[in-house]
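hiii, so i know i said id send this last week but things got crazy w the move. better late than never?? heres the sequnce for the chain we talked about at the cafe, plus the structure i predicted for it. fair warning i was half asleep when i ran it
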Amino acid sequence: MIAVGEAAPDFSLEGTGGRRYTLAEHRGAPVVLAFYPADGSPVCSIQLPDYSLDIGAFRELGATLLAISPQDVASHEDFARRVGIAFPLLADPDRAVGRAYGIVGPLGFYRRAVVVVDGGGIVRHARRTLGYAYPSSESVLNATREALVPA
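okay and structure toks below
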């Protein structure tokens, strides 16, 4: 997995809301990247709405929250609508971004991970979880607050 202190790889991915998203467009402010295995899976259906409940707290920090998985945009739009996700879901069907961040497992499946990138494009937090665990919204908010402190 990508290490804290490394430059975060830029990307350009299609996402919900009918647009393309890049990491570079958010320079100057923190970005939280939530990598998740699949739209509609039991854990993802809890994790992402949990983060959505705190979207105001992320915005108060000036942070952008983006979630990335291998499903296509149509799947993302349906999933976001069904479970009430308040931030963009980005499609990485060839898993290139997942590989760049080191979260694709040996069988080609996305692993659940959260990466916080500071305004200068440097990784300040990187955590991968296994099984049914996911980083709580509060722990991700704390990692984002820490990213605001100059290194």
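btw The chain has one domain: 28-147. thought thatd interest u
miss u guys!!
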